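Weekend entry, working from home. Most of the wet-lab plans are on hold until the incubator is repaired, so I used the time to fold the two sequences that have been sitting in the queue since the last round of cloning. Logging both here for the record. First:
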Amino acid sequence: MLLPLLLLSLAQVPQPDGGGLKPGTLPAKWISGGPSCVEEPDWQVHEYNDNLFIIRQSGCTHYEKPFLYLIFGKDKAALIDTGAGKNEVARIVDTTIARWLKRNNRESIQLVVTHSHGHGDHTAGDAQFKERKDTTLVAANLPEIQKAFNIVDWPNTPGKLDLGGRVLDALPIPGHHTVDVAYYDALTGLVFSGDTLYPGRLYVSNWAEYEKSISRLVKFLDGKPVAHILGAHVEQALTPYLDYPVRTSYQPREHALELSRSTLLELQLGLATLNGKPARVAYRDFTIWPNIR
């Protein structure tokens, strides 16, 4: 237990003064597929703060109900993931950008569309951005990711995306997928962890790579304040050790989206305890779930 406690102390700030982070708020409740799909919008757009928006796709449109993140700098905005199934993600993104432009007395801003990883429930809307004005689409494949973020040595070195006055660190964390990327926003202290860590079933396709990636993420965050870890789904129920089954659209009592750095350390310790032997283990806020044939 000594190592996780030591690592936890390295991530804290000297005084309870906000840590120099730009704060934000999270909603009391997210849309989650009902109970009436007639009344629920296809997307929920939540303004975390004036330059960062969290977008959730309704379970009425796709049971995966993924979370997307739209982050604004002075020169560019970054969209992480494009949703699941047949959707109109470009419409909701354009509407949100238009609101931001009006508020900031701007006519346009460059958009970089990137991903947490390459699974279909995170890339389904990509085609809507291929011909979009002022837009760069970074496909979820290794060559494009390395080029876009200047990652020289995948997966050992992090890259960066400069939005203008705001830099996102892009850390390779393969294991769930072959090209998983976590993003750290130093301005807010938010970590965007995709499907690698979220309240739900942490599917592991490559056990050895996943273990290394979790350790790499822990090491990268040493000394950095972490306000929240925000993943791409919620599958866990409010009841500890209980999840919603696969293909559940309506989740009236779901776990909060946000996790903490201590959850990441718990995951690292849990993997170490298994000693390289993949096994399914349920924790209070997530389940380690080997997906290895």
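Second, folded right after the first finished:
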Amino acid sequence: MLPLMDWRPRALLQSLHLDWLQQAGVEVAVLRLDQIDPLISGNKWFKLTEHLTAARAAGAQGLISLGGAHSNHLHALAAAGKRFGFATVGLMRGYAQQTPTTQDLERYGMQLHWLGFAGYRARHAPGFWEPWQAQYPALYPVPEGGGGLPGALGCMTLVHQVQEQLATLGWADYDAWWLAAGTGTTLAGLVLAEAGQRPVYGALAVPDDHGVAPQVEAILQAAGHAGRHFELIDASRGGFAKVDEALLAFIQTSEAASGLPLEPLYTGKALMALKQAIEAGRIGRGQRVIFVHTGGLQGRRGVTFAS
């Protein structure tokens, strides 16, 4: 059985100082989920909390989930399994390959099964989980990315953590949230916690055709939430894990100016999209924005920055 413990970490809120923010008259504070743990990093820990609680209540001995060769979700799950002593299995997109992430997964003791691309696309089909639950009856199934309503419920606490720290910035309030979106689960949790008080902007790390909007809407509907209260912006730059020289240059410049570490799959794209939104007038002068650093800095490995 999974260990009994408090799975809910806390994150620091700090001001972000960049010339283009100052020139636009926009204030941004970063919720540093990247700092909560060196391995079980970012929003992935928060998305896992309710799944872990449910797994323990079910008497499970571990967890089985899905992801790709660069999955931050599987990386966090495997690291949690190694640290806290429970079994983990990863159902992988595509065919066997070695990446820094998959090497970590194996080193942390996660059992990997490569499904191919057609097999992975079938993950939403009825009956997909049946053979895997027959093979691993003691493991609790977790959706891709830690998604679904349980994942969103685990992220609701982020709103309270921000509101508790506003006074440290000299802020009485804030106007909006901005974060990278992969499955949309963290975004859905923020929408639920805000209950229509403030908009939540999701900078898509995947193209529109990945169905993030329907996933978010399904979570909100399952929670009985009325109204949309969120907006998705395509920040994928052509596809998930697509990296170009302009993005890498932006990350280097931003890190040098602010000291905020970024990675090119999620947070770098999200901050670049925020800059473009401010330049386009979507975020106006005088507004205060909470930028969620969703972690995933392990995704920097294998990326070459210009010297």
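Plan for Monday: verify the second prediction. The longest strand covers residues 27-32.
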